[in-house]
Amino acid sequence: MLLHLPKFQHLLHHPDIHLCIIDQIKIIQTQLDTFDNWSLIEDRLNSLQYLCISKETSDVVVQCYKQVFKRDIWTYADLLCVISVKLSEQQLDDVIEFFMGIIDKGEYVHYRCAESIAKIALKLNERQLNKVFKCLMNAFESGKITICKECAHALATISSQLGGKQLDNAFQCLIHRFPLYFYNDDFQTDLIQFLMKLKEEQLGDVFKFLIDGLSDEKENDGVRKKVAELIGKISMKWNEKQLIDAFNSLIDIFNAIDDSYDAFNAVREAIAEITVKLPGRQFDNAFNYLISRLNSRNNAYYLFIRLHKDWMKNK
Fold first, then answer.
1. Domain count, the chain
2. What SUPFAM superfamilies does the record point to (predicted)?
3. 10 Å Cβ neighbour count for 196?
4. Per-residue pLDDT, 303
């Protein structure tokens, strides 16, 4: 059944067939509370995503998904995210209201709701994005919910789409309430996009935050490695002063850090990425400094090869 439904979408809009579909969805809805076989229930729920062909059918499908929420939030949330592209503005409002209304109902539910909000955010309009952003920020401020990596991701995703003051507020919130977001592997691509949208003055705060984290010898090697990698990736957004400051800070750390750590190699890569972005005279000064000051011949050789490759690539 699932294999053939997508092929016949054009037929499902016929008035007579449309009425039959609504009746069939309602029959499935009544069966959901009587079925004991979860595989059978899941099969019915999966088939419903192909029957969201109108506001009327989508309304009943959403009701069906809500009906099984307490039995399996994972399936319910996944299916709602799948059909979100087919929902009307009002239906999306209802879905958002539902998720925001239960986001504080235990850690398991909280995690799933935050993850779903981040996915659905890509389908929302500006009014809806502002509404969700305000709800999340108020919930964090009031202590109604404790920010987690999924919440942080949702906040970053929403504020990236909104920009302006919301982007700045989200950045400050993440820096002070959940700095671990900047070290998380799960959302690196989205994090880079988020940071790239920050203004120059905000990037100064990012720079200080990252350098402080990298300089902290009490921080574990894995975190320092992630920080160094992030510094290199976002260096294309920094102005000349920030690049010079980053280079000087990284050199200090490079000379002090044990070369057996993973962070050592990441710092070396970041130095190479930043050096090649320095303007003419500053690049010459940095290059000459590296020649005269790097202690290990192997490290110097590696760094020079790396710089040469980047320089040739950017010529």
1. 3
2. ARM repeat
3. 13
4. 63
**What pLDDT score does 100 carry?**
82
Q: Indicate if the pLDDT at residue 2 is higher than 50.
A: no
Do 220 and 274 lie in one domain? The reply is yes
Supply the range of the domain harboring residue 152. Answer: 88-198
Q: For 114-128, 132-146, 201-215, 252-266, which range has the lowest pLDDT when averaged over its residues?
A: 252-266
Q: Is residue 247 part of a domain?
A: yes
Residue carrying structure tokens 């949702």 = 154
DSSP state of 25: H
* pTM, to two decimals: 0.77
DSSP state of 265: H
Determine if residue 298 is left, alpha or beta; phi over 0 gives left, psi from -120 to 50 gives alpha, anything else beta. Answer: alpha
Question: Who's near 123: CB < 8 A, 6+ residues apart?
Answer: 84, 85, 87, 92
Asked if residue 287 and residue 221 are part of one domain, the reply reads yes
Neighbour count for residue 218 (Cβ, 10 Å) = 4
